[in-house]
């Protein structure tokens, strides 16, 4: 068992803070504005990024204070993951929770933080900044999932 990586041997709830944080692949998809169709429950992604997302780095520009600065920013935990239906299917947290392995482009597998971008799996170069009054329906995209 010692030869297996931590994400194959530990439940999400058993991971250290460092292990938990390293699971984030840096795609930025969770920081896109999403729309839920009330009638069907279907989630649509937009290419509109949260105002704190540095879309070149695919990182939050104020990670430590994100919940204070963005009122609807969700802090992902092992306990709330299952209820967050909007998390992308490629999300490492979702994959591990479902007993699946990480993708080849995940930095923990590839050993390179740039692989996810080279594979076209991040939001880098694909977003627009959020502005008041935007009609989210006009900005729906299919590429995040």
> What level of helicity do the residues show?
10-25%
Total strands = 6
The structural domain count equals 1
Main beta sheet strand tally, sense and closure: 4 strands, mixed
Q: Which range does the strand content fall in?
A: 5-15%
Summed up, the helix count is: 6
Mean of residue pLDDT values: 93
Radius of gyration: 16 Å
Query: What is the CA-CA span between the terminal residues?
Result: 32 Å
Low-confidence runs of at least 5 consecutive residues: none
* Dominant shape: globular
What letter string, H or E per element, gives the SSE order?
Answer: HHEEEEHHHHEE
Structural class: alpha+beta
Question: What's the arrangement of secondary structure elements?
Answer:
Blueprint: H1 6-9, H2 17-22, E1 32-36, E2 43-49, E3 53-54, E4 59-60, H3 66-69, H4 92-97, H5 107-110, H6 115-118, E5 128-129, E6 140-141
Parallel strand pairs: 2-5
Antiparallel strand pairs: 1-2, 2-6, 3-4
